[in-house]
Specification:
By secondary structure, the chain is of the alpha/beta class. 41% of the residues lie in helices and 21% in strands. It catalyses: N-acetyl-alpha-D-glucosamine 1-phosphate = N-acetyl-D-glucosamine 6-phosphate.
Length: 524
């Protein structure tokens, strides 16, 4: 690092002193905290993003200012890598160290050492970072802090994309690095065009007793998704009846989280003074997508030849896994966390993943997309096969290939329901969830629990897994696992069984076993 660069970093960082008595850690959601203490952190992660761009040969990096569904006074920042995916885990310790550096001199020392270790040029080479934010009032000032951090690296430029959803920014980063047009207009055009293509390819009288599926009410959590869904609504008025607000009894509803990277469906039914929410979660969304994709592959006579991988975590309801296995699909498990699910899904021709919380997407390999293009453009393939290929290509264009995206996922659900001629109730009847229960057991040291086999089995302490297995075997359709939390000193317990009473009993019994092994108390 030359003296000019060192001087710029020292001078600019002195304007953003870190908060005293606060230690921040970079996780799946990036950094999150009360917005009032984030100026320094956001500034420093701006520097990291510029360094990441330099490390990757000048590729575009993304910085998103959001705290998703957290309260309005919070905010956060996370980094998108050139692929549009999350920041590589190898850089997370560096993010932690610079965020918590006590003074400018310590910060510059860390940057100097890291740049030398990673062979990052600090000689004025070009770097580019896209900035985005949600609708929180604190977002504007934090974007400015990030901008200052980026521009404190000589040769780096910040490009402010304004108010966007988190998946939009990830999509833009991926598109830019593929040499494609990547404005918000292009994002909405791709989603709306792909959705209309799927609707146009619905065979006449498709589905059982094919009938209009009716209005969809969407709760956008007072987040950025409401503003952006309004744009899609205007583009798709002739194809989809959307109403954007909170919730309503007796109406088919969907709900997005604050930064619009997760979504679920639900209906609200009223029984006198009591309202009941009938939830259609990420497991059901995954199952609907998997069913539709398998149907198209069957038309192409490729339901066995194509490598389709369905990726779940241990938290997926056992009934969903059984349903997918019964369809003849390969189901694999990863540890909890989108970075694990997405990475595994990338290994297949078609990789489908969703967490129960509604975060997920469908990934397609370049090789398989090229094969579909060949089928689509070959007249001797026959109209039915050509249409199946067109549908899968439209799904690939509609679904965000960088990250889970509530807007694109919601449009695919609506297209498939129209294709099938299904109501939400019929969709919800694909299978019936097994009753489940989750508990938290507070412990002194969560690292004392070490898991294996995608967190479904305990390796340490010795004997704990054997005790869990013995308890679980007493319950019909019983399943139970424990895992250490990634964010707090608790061990999480998940249990399923044939009845709710048995699931509750199994979870309570296993929580007590964890207490005996670790010395703790459990929190319902």
């Amino acid at each position: 690092m030359n003296e000019e660069q060192r001087s710029i970093l020292l001078q600019s960082s002195s304007r953003f002193p870190p908060p005293k008595g606060t230690k921040l850690s970079y996780g799946t959601a990036g950094f999150r905290a009360d917005a009032s203490i984030l100026q320094s952190t956001v500034f420093r992660i701006g520097i990291l993003a510029a360094l990441r761009s330099l490390k990757t040969g000048g590729a575009v990096i993304g910085l998103m200012i959001t705290a998703s569904h957290n309260k309005v006074s919070d905010n956060g920042i996370k980094v998108a890598d050139p692929s549009g995916g999350m920041l590589t885990q190898d850089w997370e310790p560096f993010a932690d160290s610079i965020a918590n550096a006590p003074d400018p001199e310590s910060l510059v020392k860390l940057i100097t050492e890291f740049a030398k270790k990673e062979n990052i040029p600090l000689d004025g080479a070009k770097a580019a970072v896209l900035l985005g934010r949600d609708t929180r009032p604190s977002g504007e000032s934090l974007v400015e802090a990030a901008n200052k951090g980026i521009c404190s690296v000589v040769g780096a430029v910040a490009i402010d994309m304004g108010i966007v959803t988190t998946p939009e920014l990830h999509w833009m980063v991926r598109a830019r690095n593929k040499g494609l047009k990547a404005t918000e207009l292009h994002y909405f055009d791709q989603l709306s065009t792909s959705f209309r293509c799927l609707i146009d390819l619905i065979p006449e009288k498709s589905g059982d007793n094919h009938h209009p599926i009716g209005k969809l009410v969407v709760d956008c959590s007072n987040g950025v998704g409401g503003e952006k869904l309004q744009v899609l609504k205007e583009k798709l008025n002739a194809f989809l009846h959307l109403e954007i607000r909170n919730s309503d009894v007796g109406i088919r509803c969907a709900s997005l989280d604050g930064d619009a990277d997760r979504f679920v469906y639900f209906t609200l039914t009223s029984n006198g003074d009591n309202n009941k929410i009938n939830l259609v979660d990420g497991d059901k969304i995954l199952s609907l997508f998997a069913l539709f994709i398998k149907q198209q592959l069957s038309i192409l006579n490729q339901d066995v030849g194509v490598g389709v991988g369905v990726v779940q975590t241990a938290y997926a309801n056992g009934a969903s896994t059984k349903y997918l296995n019964d369809l003849g699909l390969k189901v694999v498990f990863t540890p909890t966390g989108v970075k694990y699910l997405h990475g595994k899904a990338e290994e297949y021709d078609i990789g489908i993943y969703f967490e129960a919380n509604g975060h997920g997407t469908v990934l397609f390999s370049d090789h398989f997309l090229s094969w579909l293009d060949g089928i689509k453009n070959e007249p001797c393939s026959g109209l039915e096969k050509q249409n199946a290929a067109k549908r899968l290509l439209a799904v690939a264009n509609l679904m965000n290939q960088a990250v889970g995206d509530a807007l694109s996922g919601l449009l695919l659900v609506e297209a498939i329901l129209q294709h099938m001629g299904w109501s939400l109730d019929k969709w919800n009847q694909l299978y019936h969830d097994l009753p489940s229960r989750q508990l938290k057991v507070k412990v002194a040291d969560r690292s004392a629990v070490v898991t294996t086999n995608a967190e479904t089995s305990v390796e340490k302490p010795p004997g704990l897994q054997e005790a869990i297995t013995a308890l679980t075997s007493k319950y019909p359709q019983g399943r139970c696992f424990v895992r250490p939390s990634g964010t707090e000193d608790v061990v999480r317990v998940y249990a399923e069984a044939k009845t709710q009473e048995e699931a509750d009993e199994l979870a309570d019994s296993v929580a007590k076993i964890v207490q005996q092994f670790l010395g703790s108390h459990f929190i319902a």
